[in-house]
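question for whoever is on the cluster today: can someone run the full assembly for these? two chains, 538 residues total. i dont have access anymore since they changed the login thing
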Amino acid sequence: MDHLIDRIPLRFEIYEEGDISIVNLNKLKKYVQETTGIEIFLRGNIYENISMDQVQTIAQKMAQLRIKDPEKEFLNKTPLKGEVTYEEERISDQKWKSFGILYEGILYQKHLADFPLKKKLNERYCSILITNQLVGTWDQNDHRYHIRTSIYGSPHIISVPGLVLAPAKPREFYIKRQMGVPVEILKEEYKGRFLEHGDLRTTEILKGYLIQALFYDLIGNPFCDDSDCRLFNSHWQEEMLHAQLDGKYEFCSKHEALLKKIRNTNKEVQSLKMV
Amino acid sequence: MPEKIFAAVSEKEVTRAIVGGFAKQFIEYVESDCLIIGGGPSGLMAGRDLALKGLKILIIERNNYIGGGFWIGGYLMNKVTVREPGQKILEELGIPYEEVTPGLFVADGPHACSKLIAAACDAGVKFANMTIFDDVILREGNRVCGAVVNWTPVQALPREITCVDPIALEAKIVVDSTGHDACVVRKLEERGILKTSGYGAMWVEQSEDLVVEHTGEVHPGLIVTGMAVATTYGLPRMGPTFGAMLLSGRKGAQIILKKMNKD
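^ ran it for u. tokens below:
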């Protein structure tokens, strides 16, 4: 347990990528501060104040991380000129809206650490990027890429469209879609049972993912087996909505106890500072 | 004896009018400012915008009819849809439409397509229909500066008839608006000049934005627009909504104008 105390981050640092205006960052900040007692800083866009040279370097690299075929472990080693131009435009426009390209998540994370966050990451900080882009990881079991809601590490990546697209919708949704029922009709029929782009519940759902990032830093495991706990690793939309919005409690007793310990430790640190 | 309705014209005069008119235009357009391969919505839109700026535009179309898939929407039903802001182009072209749900607009396919074709013609675009793209013309640095074409029916001739040689058309810029086939880009790929990705299959909702954002010069002298963009960059497939085709054509035209310092 003492090891845990040593690992409590000094602060949260939140970075943004693209347009994430659906997320109320101040609400998230207040929640994280109250839940953990750890200070949180909103650092703005990850590409703020980077030079034109850096834009070109980052764009070239980003274009190489596109996954073209999710069934092939493929990297776009020689991107087309248009792909690099697209990345340059995306990086330069801090309110870039569109997504739909799937990036290799592990390399994306490494690339962020190597370039835009090079001098900003600190092992004592819990650094989180909230992105409007899609990231995926290769699954050794079924040999294909899957979209992810989050990739924990340094920095942690949490994808807003990933929350919509990674956890699966109700099984019947896909069966009916295969039978030719238009998506718009299905969305109406299953309304509320999955998150949609621009969904006002996004901020509330993100709260749990920020705390998952904290637990990854603390104990190396961001997840909990309890489906009522916000740390539950949801594979289905309905699981995610339950764990984040209407679980029996916010955190299971084990994780709640750990959070309490973190809060108390931070209080003690703060009082020592005052003295 | 009732008076004849039509003027007396002999068969040979009709033939001379066809051949003479066609030859005159064809000779004039053997060299153009911009050669657009594919007469679907993105090619027409690009051609129309460029011609309005005074550029000499020739559109090559392999079918007899111009308009590509713009005549019909999904499942062969003749209603075409566009999403906001695509309706602004419908308005500009005088195409009637209705808002179905916020941000989604529907128009009659035949009305929309014929108006777009007419707008391109009115702007001064010329067409070579029943003409199929065969190859690219490359100059220094592999810059694309024209296309080799042939009559479409030549493809259907028996293999024994191999002497139907194509002809070449030159242009300052070539546009690939050949839809999913991306014929011109594929030809460069065949020659080992660039590598495309083939189209993806996911996230239809996002594909329209991505098609417009990726519209541009894929290789010196070659601009790619419309669904050919999706094939070139491996973007998701798109549903039967045409806003991206129109906006991609417009963006392609803007890029060309900028390159020619005419914007």
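summary bc i know u wont read the tokens: Chain B has a mean pLDDT of 92. The first strand of chain B starts at residue 31 and ends at 37.
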